[in-house]
Amino acid sequence: MQQREEKQLETAVESLISRVAHVKNALSSFIYKLENEYERLTWPSVLDNFALLSGQLNTINKLLRNEKTPAFRSQVIIPLLLSPDRDEDLAKLTEQRVPVFSHEIVPDHLRTKPDPEVEEQEKQLSAEAVRIGPELAQKHIQALNKLCSNLLEKLNNPREDREGDASVRQNKASFNPTDTSALVAAVAFGKGLSKCRPPGPVAPGHPGQGPMMSGGPTLQQVTIGGGSNQQAGMGGPGAPQQQGQPGKMPSSIKTNIKSASGSIHPYNR
Amino acid sequence: MEAPPVTVMPVTGGAINMMEYLLQGSVLDQALESLLHRLRGLCDNMEPETFTDHELVYLLKGQQGNPFILRARRSLSHPTSPWHLRYLGQPEVGDKSRHALVRNCVDVAASQSLPEFLNEMGFRMDHEFVASGHIFRKGAMKVVVSKVSRILVPGNTENTERMSLSYLVELSILAPAGQDTVSEDMRSFAEQLKPLIHLEKIDPSKQRH
């Protein structure tokens, strides 16, 4: 039983340490950004930083509220040895923030009561609370509750109206699905991109390479069938895309590979 | 002398089959800034990288139906870099529940004489376009936000015209065949980009006509 609790405590403390380290890093990078990149900072990026911090604090809260976490309140820390000498291990553990475990740092680091100033303020507030009497306090509480509920109502209701308004959301849409399909089609198989033509002025000995016929069938013509390439070249759906411009590509010399698939040429060798 | 690590040893007796896992979406111009900002936050911390590439798609028509397609890509911002030749297979029709488009992918680098070589081999250029934009990385994932422009005069990459008012967003991972956990990671990353953009697997064969 004892060991289980000890283990739980250990794991809880370790995860707490790592979460707090994350918060520390986020805070330090945020502060650096605010101090040094002051001119280039935009509101969305500041909001992102705040969101990050709030998320991290949330995780810490969840961790503390977790039922597997033992109550830290019931643990007591007692310093066993104080020395004015510099302790290297401690310095390394705390990243040089606490180099010496002496009587100066103990009141600050092992404090369990609030700071003296905070204690003073709390005392004043509780004295004030006792002074005004229970009926007046009750009236104050009711007034505060009413204000909060009014505010909540005002915040919630316009949002409900807005959610029903589709046109508002249209303006805020950040992507267009038709554009997505158009772009994907363009990149995947060249839909909407003008098909390349082989160069028009070729030697007359080269059969079948006029400006209206592509050197090889375009992708769209493939679906019609490889054998009827000539008809496909004339009446295929790709026709409007074929601008009869002399291509800038170097003319292909008839290689053996090409003539092997001689069925696509109108002239037989 | 100890043996070199496995990744460095030459692959003999068959190549490692690399598969490309792909999710695609688009973003309108006005939302581009917020998308870039969000990606800068979500992805690995590095200097934002921009690129301008010119891609040419070559076809080799054989006797049978489907032509063989190769994609040659070169960087316009680094003209002396090697060309990049890529083969993409047909999308794997497997599991319908797989979240990303999976296809076989073979990549090689090539020298500046690649277009002439392909022409000599019998390939014909089918279409070309210029893609320019930003690239982000998160671990093995690569996110590319690019605007696609069509080339008005073949061969002239200065004179281009944008295809649409949106940027294409692609999330891809290159992994050896058989690692399906990869698509889970991609899906959770895509969730983080909603509702700004919707990354989904778009089957290119369904887009035709």
TrEMBL record, chain A:
Record's keyword terms, sorted: Activator, Nucleus, Transcription, Transcription regulation
InterPro entries: Mediatior_Med8_fun/met
GO molecular function: transcription coregulator activity
One cellular component (GO) term of this entry: mediator complex
Composition bias type Gly residues, residue spans: 224-238
Main location: nucleus
Subcellular location: Nucleus
Region Disordered, annotated ranges: 197-269
Low complexity bias spans: 239-250
Composition bias, Polar residues: 252-262
Protein origin, superkingdom: Eukaryota
Gene Ontology biological-process annotations: regulation of transcription by RNA polymerase II
Function comment: Component of the Mediator complex, a coactivator involved in the regulated transcription of nearly all RNA polymerase II-dependent genes. Mediator functions as a bridge to convey information from gene-specific regulatory proteins to the basal RNA polymerase II transcription machinery. Mediator is recruited to promoters by direct interactions with regulatory proteins and serves as a scaffold for the assembly of a functional preinitiation complex with RNA polymerase II and the general transcription factors.
Subunit structure: Component of the Mediator complex.
Family the UniProt entry places it in: Belongs to the Mediator complex subunit 8 family.
Protein name: Mediator of RNA polymerase II transcription subunit 8
Species in which this protein is naturally found: Oryzias latipes
Lineage: Eukaryota, Metazoa, Chordata, Craniata, Vertebrata
Automatic annotation (TrEMBL), chain B:
Key words of the record: Activator, Nucleus, Transcription, Transcription regulation
Cell compartment(s), UniProt: Nucleus
Classification via Gene3D superfamilies: Hypothetical Protein Pfu-838710-001
Pfam families xref list: Med18 (PF09637)
Chief location bin: nucleus
Assembly, per entry: Component of the Mediator complex.
Official protein name in the record: Mediator of RNA polymerase II transcription subunit 18
Organism: Oryzias latipes
Name of the encoding gene: MED18
